[in-house]
Design a protein that fits this description.
This protein has about 450 residues and is of the alpha+beta class. Helices cover about 55% and strands about 10% of the residues.
Length: about 450
Amino acid sequence: MEPNLSTTELFYDLLDLTEEEQQHYLSELKREDPELYHKIQPLLEADSQESGQLTELFGFHAQQAVSDEVCFSHLHIDKYKVQDEIGRGGMGIVYAAERCDDTFDQQLAIKFIQPSLTQVLGKAFLFQEAQLLARLNHPYVAKVFDGGEHQGYVYVVMEMVKGQTLREVINSQPLSIQQRLKLFVQICQAISHAHQNQILHADIKPENVLIDEVLAPKVLDFNITQKQHLSPSATSPILAFSEDFASPEQKEGTYLTQQSDVYSLGKLLLFMIGEQPAYSDLKAVINKATQPLADKRYASVIELMTDIECILTKRPVSLKAHQPFYVAKKLLQRRPVSSALSLSLLLCAMVFSAALIQKNHQLEQEKTIAENMMFEVTSLLFHSKGDVNKYMSVQNMLELTRRRILSNPDLPQHIKQKMLLAMMTPVPDKSRVTEDCHPACTQITTEGKEQ
């Protein structure tokens, strides 16, 4: 570090060092400049104490910082009558309440934010965040109605949600995979609505989702300590999240985007369906949503929700839409009866077409053979008119034809068999033919013999 620094400059320079580097520098400073060392020491102790408080309030294993002695039960605060306590945590205490101004009969919940958190973030910031939450108007988001301050506690008046946490429902009720996915889609709808209003949840976990008696969710406890971008001058980011569901960038304390909530939703989906998803599509969706790098995840909650809806309706998910066989499989799963009928008709048409083509080919072949045989028989009869063959019997002609048929390599075997069978029919006897002839034919024959 540069010499002759002021106490304030030296203090901020020390904050940039690691703890080991700070100890080494302070040891050297104590030996070389004891006066400056004693001036800087109280500032470092105060900063250490403040950091310890922040860790206690917002850290990973944050302890409950609200004193058990604080109790607002049965008090009248503004127009609300506070009833029994229903929850307590690092952010504050939640009580049941009701309106007592004789205008509306409302059952409400009031969250009192602890004063130490108010001191760190400021009342204006808390009211600003509460105002943003009040703009949310969605059936699956716990509605924020009002806010105020009482005895140093900033309070937020919210919708009273009766039901069990998502963890209790998953562990106690035998929900089908379809019921779980439909419930997850509704949670995604709530988070997407918040994103459309420029609000991150930043603390999605089963305890922050209540399920009513009709299995409808209510998302609550938006993390108002988280902003999309941390201030560049911030020296210690405020950490308020659940380790099992927080994104890597949230654990590192860097700025958050919608992909941070996408990561938490992916982890929530894995919790809801079990450690080993039964469907390959679910595995692909969860892997996509929980990628370590934000730009490798779904770009928005809507994209994640759309793929889950595709799984519910047996449609192709976006991650596999480029695979033809996968798309065809999804079509068969989605419309089994109509797909089976269409496939049967297609197969019948293919079989009929193949049979028709084969039959046409066979007819063409037989036509060609018949033409060739006619040519053979015609040639044989023509040549039999000569002097040499004029006394050739029909039997000899048939025998000659049979030999020519057998020697013809172009004739199919089944055609040869049919033709040979036809040629085996016995020839009528000559005398019998004469007897069957007309008497005039007999007279002509007799005259011929006498001559």
